[in-house]
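= Protein in question =
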Amino acid sequence: MRGFFAKMFGPQAGATPRPAATDAAGVERTWVSSDGLRLSAQDYGGAGGPARLPVICIHGLTRNARDFEDVAPAIAATGRRVLALDVRGRGRSAYDPNPTNYNPAVYAGDVASLMGEAGIARAIFLGTSMGGLITMTLSTMRPDLIAGAILNDIGPEIATEGLTRISGYVGSGGPAASWTEAAERTRAINGSAQPHLTDADWDRFARRTWREAEPGKLVLDYDPAIAQAFAAAPAGTPSPDLWPLFMALAINRPMLLVRGGASDLLAEDTAARMQSLAPQLRRIDIDGVGHAPTLDEPAARKAITDFLADAP
């Protein structure tokens, strides 16, 4: 798994765009990265009331902004503007012809670029899995941008069991012929982490993670080249120490950790150490859920609402 981190935190390079799609949820905002890639985010305007800092939502490795299509409007209803990103290579954002760009340092630069163009000086971040790694990385590059953070099932130590599971499916599998097939395949991969979901839930899950490339041909809505981050690193290559990134994020900032009670990516002892090093860190474990909570769970939603009520 050393290759995952070695390439996730690798060098930057050039990029080219692909066409964007349309969607009724939120308003699509686009911007161009520093290396010329056309990127996309969904913008949910906050309801009336006192001005509050906006929230930046960043999804996991193979996901996209649709992961936040329920929680983002709920947050916006409390008065905060919400931007949910499609990280490069996912959703409406362009695929990058250089897979070494698929790493948190490049992603963090994209987030900073979006905030600059959107006129956002500071925000609360909500990062699921990879989105949390991006948030931690950004805290070392542009600490001024982050006023607080919600980490969803991610920490500075990532369990080998979870990485092995992810490497077994990311970038693999051909097209599906129907939404029923897409839902069945989605359940086969994620069912053990979300045993409570119904058939209708799995259909919706699939529609968040697949797209119709052409009639009768559904494909996963990400660039398969992101799987190259899981290639084996040369023998003896150490995994980066991510604890300094977590500590940089934790300095003088409110934080919330949402953890799947059955997570195979964020171990209990790692979560406990995070709490001991950052006493202000709030924590909620979602019973019976693995990696990662959808944030539609009532306990997760309440924890987020309560946290944001107290945040700047």
Summary: The first helix runs from residue 2 to 8. Residues 9-24 have pLDDT under 50 and may be disordered. The first strand starts at residue 27 and ends at 32. The two ends are 38 Å apart (CA to CA).
